[in-house]
Predict the structure.
Amino acid sequence: MKALIRVELIERKILLIRGEKVMLDSDLAELYGVEVKHLKRQVRRNIDRFPADFMIQLVKEEYESLRRHSGTLKRGEHSKYLPYAFTEQGVAMLSSILDSERAVKVNIEIMRAFVRLRQMLASNAELSRKLDALEKKYDAQFKVVFDAIRELMKPPEKPKRKIGLKREKEKG
């Protein structure tokens, strides 16, 4: 069976905010094929289904940080209200209040993306534990090898852009 939406696309929309893996209301509305205001309206009508561990509302600083650093939110393209961010449980609850066939199908794909992410994190942790055990077992001659493997396991760092104008001397 062909997926309605590719899992990789969904995975790119999963963010880490306040230590939680979440998805923003605007991204979910896009995936579900509804307007953001419709999604928010349904959430407000069913607010008792969304406790604090299912949904958070971003504060202004978080919203601005998202706009600046990731380009996730662009000025003028989104609501003037602060966005909601939904945890995996909150996303599961959304499909029940949106009550459409597409919402159910998309939700299945989103749940698969969250599970896949959890499995990748668990396998990386397991690999790290095995590496620790090997490192303890063998002597220092393999330390360089273990250090190199650990370096390869680290997620790639995004280069930081310098902010500000360049002086004439720096341009050349």
